[in-house]
Amino acid sequence: MVFMNTTSQLTLTSETGLMPALDSEIAWRQILSRDAAAVFFYAVTTTGVFCRPRCTSKRPLRSNVRFFDSAEAARAAGFRACKRCNPTAAESSRLEKVRAHLEAHLDRAVPLAELGRVAGLSPFTVQRLFKQGLGVSPLQYQRALRAGSLRNALKQGANVTEAIYEAGFGSSSRAYESAQLGMTPARFAQGGRGERIGYTTARTAFGWLVVGATQRGLCWLALGGTAAEAAASLRAEFPLAELRRDVGLSRLVDAAVGMVAGKTAATELALDLRGTAFQLRVWQALRAIPRGETRSYSELARELGEPKATRAVARACATNRVALLVPCHRVVSASGALTGYRWGVERKKQLLEAEGARSGR
Length: 361
Hints:
Number of domains: 4
CATH class of the largest domain: Mainly Alpha
Distance between the termini: 33 Å
Order of helices and strands: EEEEHEEEHEHHHHHHHEEEHEHHEHHEH
Largest sheet: 8 strands, mixed
Helix content: 40-55%
Number of strands: 14
Radius of gyration: 22 Å
């Protein structure tokens, strides 16, 4: 939902239709008075920054102001958070309470009403803020936590049945439905044994690219110097799966390259991401970085509300299995150096230049 500026009012719109209009003069007066109770965000086109109305920074010209109902909407429009008023701090604090509560109760479903009481918000607001902040609903996040626990146990050779119940799933069927493995737990533990993964390779401006997809979505997208090298990366990840070439998946290649060119939105394709709950949060944050911009690992950690997790963020970027569509190439070192790209620093530089981003700071 976004406040759209018109000559006489700001109209709140949403995917479900029009909501009550907000008088532009009232909204502007809230900014002028630095109203701490105002619930919207405003962005300044000349600085590229978005704030809460309470911000103590110099008041902007009215003609340079845009209004948003969420930080996520402001970021999607290309604005960055103000360092003075830290407009997302309150939301981050509430989200951390909700996240901690979910992590402490993996053994049962946690209703939205309960999360609302934890955060001091309505159930609807908890759902909206959580999805805006983490990219998934509270239910999906809890499932991801269980899935991460299950995957780790399976990778370490644990008994499948024991791993399923220790991860908080009530049955093997529930684990299969919710674990985001893209295959049964047993098959995942066995390197994809018996699983069918469609794939194709194609030459692109950034080298050879391979995509692999399960029924649930894209599970692998890697770059290589040759077609054989690219395809080998998929085989290494799923050594016992049945790989079948599917030329119909060339549309995924086109979509991935199109995202770099600004022709495809990152959210248009179904992804079968496989990782821990923290990795999933990092990968979702990567998808929220606007094309043409970069973040440092420490900046990304702060945006996640985990300022001390810089190294963990870097590791999550390094284990990204879906290049381009989960754009880990948009993360650089604090100095701006192009370090730590899984598919080569030179290719990282090429991708950033194609997106119009500066390769250094």
